[in-house]
Amino acid sequence: DQQVKQNSPSLSVQEGRISILNCDYTNSMFDYFLWYKKYPAEGPTFLISISSIKDKNEDGRFTVFLNKSAKHLSLHIVPSQPGDSAVYFCAAATIQTGANNLFFGTGTRLTVIP
Amino acid sequence: EPEVTQTPSHQVTQMGQEVILRCVPISNHLYFYWYRQILGQKVEFLVSFYNNEISEKSEIFDDQFSVERPDGSNFTLKIRSTKLEDSAMYFCASYPSGRAWYEQYFGPGTRLTVT
Q1: What does the pLDDT look like over A20-42, one tens digit per residue?
Q2: Which residue in A35, A39, A62, A114 has the fewest CB atoms around it within 10 Å?
Q3: What Å distances lie between residue B69 and A52, A54, A91, B35, B98, CA to CA?
């Protein structure tokens, strides 16, 4: 049951340009969405989140956009830096029921080219 | 900065054997989790643990799995009789009181290979 999908397994972007990572979900009951970043040999790190009552959340160079009607969210990184090269996981949850209902996508590997 | 640590980094075991994966969460954290990621697939929740008992568990966490906090610092995941399909990366995570449950600190993972 692929409730959260990241259809692009990889993305390459030039340093300084915008990186856009996409994520689609199927369950309309999800009310919280998260992005995690993972470097090789490390565990995932929480990056940014958005509640379903918002359509945008910004934290520095990272902005997450949520389009509930399309069941789509995206992570924008601008400007992209070589240190942003990592695997990015999208996740969605039904917040009141917690981690048992935290669904991850399969990840997108971002490579930022210097 | 404090980190979640996991040992071993890679464990190879034969089918049917018991394995214990170890995690040392950050010292003031109260909530603990195990996740797994089969190669090429998504990260999946296994179990959460708080106040010395399981809070939630997924369908994956069947009778072959158990968790324990034996000494107040270590947090272990035991698989009693491993199967080939248990081969995966296993992540431990924790977070402190006062943070949202999804703002977890993950360990680097243990790669379990069952042959």
Answers
A1: 999 999 988 898 999 999 998 88
A2: A114
A3: 35, 38, 27, 16, 21
